[in-house]
Amino acid sequence: MTALFFVLPILVIIVLVVGISTYASKSSEKRHSSPQKKKWIVGGYVTVIVVATVLSYTFFPAKKIDSTIMHREEVKKQEDAEIAIINSGMAGKLLEVERVFTDKKTWTFSYNKRDLLIPNNDMQEYSPNVFVISKPVDDNSVEVTHYMSKMIVGGIDFTEEKGSPEILINEETLKIYAPEPVEVTFNKFTEGFAFNQFSESKDMYSLNNLSTHGSEFLLIKVPKSVKVSGAFNYVK
Amino acid sequence: MSLVEVNSWDIVKKQYRYKLKSYLGVFSSLIIIQVLAIFFSLNGTGMSGGSSGTFSYKVNYYSGDLILVFMMLWGFITAIIITTKAYRYDDTSFVTNRLTSHFSNILFLISASLFAGLTVFLSSHLFRLITNIMNVDSIMVNEHTPLQIAKGIIGAGLYIFLFTSIGYLVGMLIQKNKLFSFFLPIVLVGAMYLDGMNNDVLIFHSISLYFLSETLLSLLIIKIMSVSLLFYGFAIILSARMEVRA
Amino acid sequence: MKVVECKNLTKQYGRVKAVNDLTFTLAENKITGLVGRNGAGKTTLLKMIAGYLHHNSGNIQVFSENPFNNLKVSANTIFIDNSMSFSPALTLGQLLETAGEFYVNWDKNLANRLFKYFSLNPDQSHVNLSKGNKSTFNMIIGLAAHCPLTIFDEPTSGMDAGTRKDFYRALLKDYIAHPRTIILSSHLLEEIEDILEDILLIKNGEKLLHISVAELKEYAIGITGKTDRINQWLSNRERIFTHEIGNDDSYVVIKNECSSSELEEAREIGMRISQVSTEDICMHLTSKSKGGIDHVFSRG
Question: Are residues B82 and B141 in the same domain?
Answer without folding.
Answer: yes
